[in-house]
Amino acid sequence: MKKLSYLLLIFMILSCKQSSEKKLDTEKITDQNEIKTELNLMVPDTIDDNMMLIGVINEEGLMDEEFREWYKENYNNHILDTITINEIKPKLREVTIKVFMGTWCSDSQREVVALYKILKEAEFDISKLEVIALSREKETPDHLEKGFNIEYVPTIIFYKNEIEIGRFVELAQDTLEKDMLAILNETGYKHSYEE
Fold first, then answer.
1. What is the DSSP letter of 123?
2. Residue 146 half-sphere exposure toward CB, CA atoms < 13 A
3. Torsion over CA of 156, 118, 54 and 141, rounded to 10 degrees?
4. Which of 71, 77, 127, 144 is the least buried, fewest Cβ under 10 Å from its Cβ?
5. pTM
């Protein structure tokens, strides 16, 4: 009986140790997940020697030295349609915007930078804008793209009362400002790939 008690005691001590080790592994996983959700996370591009942003980003991330040249060029090249922006401005107060882009994609570089310029001119509350950078496979480590049916980037989704009212996909039908106005007017705007 004494031997059985000793064996049970040893078993319990070993169990506790394994449980403690499992807890440490879980903490490592949690730390890795925190890294994935880091703002403006930069990772190597999968097909060249460049870097790309992945996950939730902001304008500051796009102005990093790695992307600054194309950011400034696209910002300066976009001529604002101030007449349309004046029509957009009051409508923007009612919406939130979610953007999926690729820092590796020339369409994203052009349109998302123009979007930032338009939103500044319209005095949009930037806290109502979420920008998610995708890999070339249109994914993020945290699967932030899941459920949004992202086939092309950029995809700019407009929400009113948490309901999607329209999306701009890759290219403008007219201009970014006029496409935004059509979406915000809820007139049945169809993006470039919509039938």
1. T
2. 5
3. -30
4. 127
5. 0.81
Residue-level pLDDT at 1: 52
Kindly list the distances between the CA atom of residue 186 and the CA atoms of 82, 89, 91, 170, in Å, as whole numbers in the listed order: 20, 15, 11, 19
* Total length of the chain: 195
| Each residue's pLDDT tens digit, 150-175 | 999 999 999 999 999 999 999 999 99
Measure CA 107 to chain center.
15
**Token pair in block for residue 72:** 């400034």
Q: What is the pLDDT of residues 80-89, one digit of tens each?
A: 999 999 999 9
Which among 187, 107, 181, 142 is positioned nearest to 30, based on CA atoms? Answer: 142
Q: Which amino acid is at 166?
A: G
- ω into residue 141 within 30 of 0, thus cis? no
